[in-house]
Write a sequence for this structure.
């Protein structure tokens, strides 16, 4: 009888590998080398570390994983991707930062059509981008709503605000929701000018216009 690991670690490991296999990105019976590229340190307690946790789950399942951290959003990431392909034999690469997508990941996808590339946004368009590229994203609205409530409970009762990721229509909407949540958790600001964005996320990059 086969032993089954019902721990959280075991579940995440199986889920990470199983998702890739089910999507067709990772063949179930083929040796695959997966590359992860981070714009900052892997242990940043945030975006990069979330991907690093997934990378570790793949490693624990027996998949070869290559990681490189602190790679700027310049042609440096192109060199990192090409090195992973040529030297390490990577067949699936996750360039995990916003600015890696265009032109760097797209150019590499065109140059290496037999390698799969996946980017953590919804920027990929099957009608105009290479078919060996793709994207994935997470549900942010719920977390932004909770952040807004937490900010509202701890802020000055006459002022409220939120962080915005980038100046796109999508981020403006989530900022408004966060601000609204903050306002519901505090006293009403004295004027409209009291409700304002207090800054931009350090990883923000200009977003293309939404169609």
């Amino acid at each position: 009888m086969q032993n089954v690991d019902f721990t959280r670690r075991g579940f995440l490991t199986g889920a990470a590998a199983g998702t890739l296999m089910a999507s067709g990105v990772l063949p179930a019976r083929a040796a695959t080398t997966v590359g992860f590229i981070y714009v900052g340190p892997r242990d940043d307690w945030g975006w990069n570390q979330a991907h690093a946790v997934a990378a570790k789950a793949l490693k624990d399942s027996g998949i070869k994983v290559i990681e490189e951290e602190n790679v700027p959003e310049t042609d440096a990431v192109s060199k990192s991707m090409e090195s992973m392909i040529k030297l390490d034999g990577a067949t699936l690469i996750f360039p995990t930062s916003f600015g890696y997508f265009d032109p760097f990941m797209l150019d590499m996808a065109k140059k290496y059509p037999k390698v799969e590339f996946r980017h953590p946004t919804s920027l990929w368009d099957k009608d105009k981008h290479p078919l060996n590229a793709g994207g994935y994203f997470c549900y942010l609205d719920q977390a932004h709503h909770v952040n807004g409530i937490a900010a509202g409970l701890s802020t000055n009762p006459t002022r409220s605000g939120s962080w915005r990721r980038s100046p796109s229509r999508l981020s403006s909407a989530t900022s408004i929701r966060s601000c609204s949540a903050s306002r519901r958790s505090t006293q009403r600001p004295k004027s409209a000018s009291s409700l304002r964005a207090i800054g931009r996320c350090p990883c923000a990059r200009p977003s293309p216009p939404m169609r």
DSSP finds six helices and seven strands in the chain. The first strand starts at residue 33 and ends at 37.
